[in-house]
């Protein structure tokens, strides 16, 4: 008998939870309803060993009962599929040595004596169970807070859990509910919210950078694609949520990087889904949303590179563009895209295409070797006469170098295992980053001049810290150094 598995679609709302609950009742005939006050304490070691292992341990008080729960499965984006184990306990002290439970087996003995309270949650849950599209679904709306010392975070979540039937019904219900109360894909469990508060207490910045992607030795190409798409979606949604609350050039930058990584992933993994029509539509939507972010980011790059008079004009233009970005993010089109991506990855028709099964189930390392080699050859071929290229062709080299960089980041864990492998990867990425930096400086000048002209602003632009010809020479040297650097994916 397998471990108990929870299949849950998590959504977030800023307001309108009551409207969503009423809509759920109208869309399906509820046969079970309940309201509960749930208070929980989450536990970990001072070094957060459980979090790093992809585990969360809590004791939740539900009425008079205390239930200890261990969840596994790591980080997710929207669709949470996690093994979990429950154990009734007395009070708020974890029981970790019960021989009849998996707790002792899954926790390192060295952790157990150091495990203590980390943060708490206090949530009011309104739950309904009903039929929808041939499935039985539990709809739970949670409102409350997560507390960790001086820091706290608001919980406003709608969770759709599949009790029986096809998981596609979860997505259909989510879209139906969004028409009554705007919903966004949730990417944080309550445990992760608590750990983010601990990070803030330790001085972490607001903008969220992309998380390392860890692919297991047994991962196939499709599993790698799913892990990468999940990581990129999390990267985007965490920064999008911050943009909806406040402005910030680094927030815009990180959200845009996340979408670029997503778009690159679709390019790199195209052999897995071929000419799938849904993939083509999703790529178009990603291009649109990246363009909305890019319109603001382009101004952010220019502002520190011009005189005070031009800066004032650019800031006014940026304010206008940021308002446009916020309006775009509030569209149902923008809210639907992350949900559509998760559904396509989990349930898309491409997964069952007979002619694609071999490449989908190829070992991730084998697939990565082919992708990295192809991208490296493209950079080498297009960049041979870097100094003699015009701006447009040099920009193409820059784009190819960026795709190679994303591939190197995505697949790094496929080629790890020892210090020597890590050093080879680091050396290659360092050489590639140097080329990207110099090509980026040149591109900023070319694109910046074009943007200023389009806005009717007169200002002089030059590469930061050096004349254009000198930067071009450094770019050529960086290209030669990259070509001579051993490729980390080759033994």
From TrEMBL:
**Stored SUPFAM superfamilies:** CYTH-like phosphatases
> CHAD domain: from which residue to which, for each copy?
218-491
Output the PROSITE patterns linked to this UniProt entry: CHAD, CYTH
Q: GO molecular function terms here? A: inorganic triphosphate phosphatase activity; metal ion binding
Q: Which domain of life is it from?
A: Bacteria
Sequence ranges assigned to domain CYTH in this UniProt record = 4-201
User: Which SMART domains does this chain map to?
Assistant: CHAD, CYTH
What is this protein's record name?
A: CHAD domain-containing protein
Organismal lineage: Bacteria, Pseudomonadati, Pseudomonadota, Alphaproteobacteria, Sphingomonadales
């Amino acid at each position: 008998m397998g471990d108990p598995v929870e299949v849950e679609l998590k959504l977030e709302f800023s307001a309108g939870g009551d409207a969503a609950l009423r809509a759920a009742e109208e869309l399906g005939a509820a046969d079970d309803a309940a309201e509960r006050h749930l208070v929980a304490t989450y536990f970990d070691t001072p070094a957060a060993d459980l979090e790093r292992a992809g585990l969360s341990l809590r004791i939740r008080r539900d009425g008079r009962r205390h239930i200890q729960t261990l969840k596994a499965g790591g980080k997710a984006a929207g669709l949470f599929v996690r093994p979990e184990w429950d154990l009734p306990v007395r009070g708020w002290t974890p029981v970790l040595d019960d021989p009849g439970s998996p707790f002792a087996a899954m926790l390192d003995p060295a952790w157990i004596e150091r495990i203590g309270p980390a943060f708490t949650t206090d949530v009011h849950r309104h739950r309904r169970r009903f039929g929808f599209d041939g499935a039985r679904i539990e709809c739970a709306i949670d409102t409350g807070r997560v507390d960790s010392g001086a820091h706290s975070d608001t919980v406003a979540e709608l969770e759709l859990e599949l009790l029986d039937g096809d998981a596609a019904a979860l997505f259909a219900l989510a879209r139906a509910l969004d028409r009554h109360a705007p919903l966004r894909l949730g990417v944080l469990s309550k445990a992760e919210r608590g750990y983010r508060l601990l990070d803030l207490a330790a001085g972490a910045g607001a903008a969220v950078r992309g998380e390392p992607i860890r692919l297991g030795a047994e991962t196939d190409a499709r599993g790698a694609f799913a892990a990468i798409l999940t990581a990129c979606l999390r990267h985007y949604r965490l920064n999008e949520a911050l943009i909806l609350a406040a402005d910030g050039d680094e927030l815009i930058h990180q959200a845009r990087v996340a979408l670029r990584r997503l778009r690159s992933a679709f390019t790199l993994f195209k052999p897995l889904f071929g000419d799938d029509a849904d993939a083509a539509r999703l790529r178009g939507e990603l291009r649109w949303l990246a363009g909305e972010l890019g319109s603001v980011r382009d101004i952010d790059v220019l502002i520190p590179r011009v005189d005070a008079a031009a800066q004032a004009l650019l800031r006014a233009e940026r304010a206008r563009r940021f308002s446009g970005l916020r309006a775009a993010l509030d569209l149902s089109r923008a809210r639907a895209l992350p949900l559509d991506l998760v559904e396509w990855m989990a349930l898309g028709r491409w997964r069952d295409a007979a002619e694609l099964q071999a490449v989908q189930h190829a070992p991730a390392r084998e697939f990565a070797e082919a992708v990295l080699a192809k991208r490296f050859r493209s950079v080498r071929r297009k960049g041979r006469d870097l100094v003699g290229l015009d701006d447009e062709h040099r920009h193409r080299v820059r784009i190819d170098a960026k795709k190679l960089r994303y591939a190197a980041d995505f697949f790094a864990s496929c080629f790890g295992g020892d210090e020597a492998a890590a050093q080879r990867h680091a050396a290659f990425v360092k050489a590639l980053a140097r080329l990207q930096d110099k090509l980026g400086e040149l591109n900023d000048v070319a694109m910046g001049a074009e943007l200023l002209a389009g806005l009717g602003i007169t200002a002089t632009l030059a590469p930061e810290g050096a004349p254009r010809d000198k930067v071009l020479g450094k770019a050529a040297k960086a290209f030669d150094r990259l070509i001579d650097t051993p490729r980390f994916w080759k033994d």
